Amino acid sequence: MNPAIMIVEDEPELAALVADYARASGYVPLVFGDGRAALDAIRAEPPALVVLDLMLPGLDGLSLCRTLRSGDHPGSEIPLIMVTARVEEIDRLLGLEAGADDYLCKPFSPRELMARIKAILRRAGASAPDRGLAIDEAARRISIHGQALDLTPSEFAILAALARRPGQVLSRAQLLDAARADSLEATDRAIDSHIKNLRRKIALAAPGLEAILSIYGLGYRCDLQ
Known about the structure:
Blueprint (H helix, E strand, L loop, with lengths): L3 E5 L3 H13 L3 E5 L2 H10 L4 E5 L7 H9 L10 E5 L4 H9 L4 E4 L4 H15 L8 E4 L4 E4 L2 E2 L4 H12 L4 E2 L1 H11 L7 H16 L6 E4 L3 E4 L3
Parallel strand pairs: 1-2, 1-3, 3-4, 4-5
Antiparallel strand pairs: 6-7, 7-8, 9-11, 10-11
Helix pairs in contact: 1-5, 6-7, 6-8
């Protein structure tokens, strides 16, 4: 089972954005906009990690963090990343002294947040999330996080070729060969267009996930496996 990440944030748009990135990274996002409700949920079923805003209604992030760390109860040892728009050093120090494992100031990069979450969970010994693509050759179907992608024959052939060689760069010529072996619609000029469509369809299934990388002058690479 993929790790659950609790996002305690009272800005709905930011909470949704972080949740999208967490989902694309293979985590199960749990979103709360109120500190006290989040505390009750943590005590009932502790998540793998908490991303906690400092300024919250009901119970502020600093108080929630101190409460979690104050005793021997469910959730007291959960890794916690605190985020806030207040950049003064005293706020950062108060957050860390209250028991936060890390600290980010708004505005922050969701990718950086995901990298910090991954690093903290690795140190805590939590299992890595499943970020892989699943290829069903018989059904000519590729899914990501269990969600099937609606692909044309050429798109299937190109993505399958990339996914079979994770971390390796494939040239446009190699991708064209793979597509032509599977479909008559493939042309040299169309490779970039197919890649664009693949990225769009992957983004619909897993927002924020960069599955296909452009390697300048060489071709494309897929890091998922």
